[in-house]
Design a protein that fits this description.
Length: about 290
């Protein structure tokens, strides 16, 4: 049976495409323009070619910030994904506890990024902060302003508190979509709790887990506001991620050409790694099915 395709529906997408072109493509072209030019002020530009890209790729500063980004993303994913799955598995499926748990899980996601940084900035202070004061009372020498380990631990803990809820809600949505017949069959077969999770719940959560990991990777790799408010990239440069270094380069040092080249490289890295994540997880899910 031949189907008749109505291509007129594509006209409905044109306003969206125009909006995307205006809000994304045009600014991107501006960044590309800056990345291949140099300026000495007065809006006078000189062709620089690939000079800025070569300088960035040979910069120890760039690769150090990149290393910090990769470590941070790996750590928060290793914590948030298993923790999110565990919480989702233990959330109620019926009764009054469902809306209560969903609201509590959604609350951290509603807080603006700069407010999250401010909350943890106060929370970690050793004079008035609940966390800092409590650790100090226990005899621990905690100071996220001066100690790199404490700064990293605080930023990781802040991100886990802020974003684990996203993984929980996505996993919970996947779990509640599983028909009761699967659990009844597993109960008849005498399947263990681990077997139910391994062969029923985890495969059904595969697609939402893919979304959760992709979103969390992109968010964690592009993190800026929270660590900037909390530590300002310090102590020293120990928490200076690529996004913070990029802003320092563009605004603090007013090196627009180098900053534009760095932002393009940054964008391509995120795009490439997201594609790798998606390809690997999609192929893994296809093989398992």
């Amino acid at each position: 049976m031949n189907k008749t395709w109505n291509n007129k529906a594509w006209f409905l997408v044109l306003p969206v495409l125009a909006l995307v072109a205006f809000s994304a493509v045009i600014p991107l072209m501006t960044v590309v323009n800056y990345s291949v030019q140099d300026t000495f002020g007065n809006n006078v530009f000189f062709w620089a070619g690939t000079e800025w890209f070569e300088e960035i790729l040979h910069s120890d500063r760039f690769w150090a910030a990149m290393g910090r980004n990769l470590v941070f993303s790996a750590v928060v994913l290793a914590i948030e994904v298993p923790l999110g799955i565990f919480i989702a598995l233990n959330m109620p499926r019926k009764g009054w506890g469902v809306p209560v748990c969903l609201v509590l899980m959604a609350l951290p996601l509603l807080i603006p990024f700069n407010v999250v940084g401010t909350i943890w900035q106060v929370f970690g202070r050793i004079d008035i902060g609940l966390l800092g004061r409590g650790l100090y009372a226990l005899g621990l020498d905690y100071n996220y302003v001066n100690d790199p380990v404490d700064a990293w631990a605080t930023i990781v803990l802040m991100d886990v508190w802020h974003w684990t809820s996203l993984v929980v809600l996505l996993c919970y949505a996947g779990l509640v979509s599983i028909p009761d017949a699967y659990y009844q069959a597993a109960k008849i077969d005498g399947a263990s709790r681990w077997a139910v999770f391994r062969y029923i719940q985890l495969p059904k959560m595969h697609r939402v887990l893919l979304i959760a990991i992709l979103l969390r990777f992109m968010d964690s790799f592009m993190i800026y506001t929270e660590p900037f408010v909390l530590t300002g990239g310090g102590p020293g440069n120990t928490t200076t991620f690529l996004s913070i270094d990029l802003v320092k380069l563009a605004i603090g040092e007013f090196n627009l050409g180098e900053a534009a080249a760095m932002s393009i490289i940054y964008f391509l890295i995120i795009l490439l790694m997201s594609w790798v994540f998606y390809t690997v997880m999609t192929n893994y899910g296809t093989e398992k099915r």
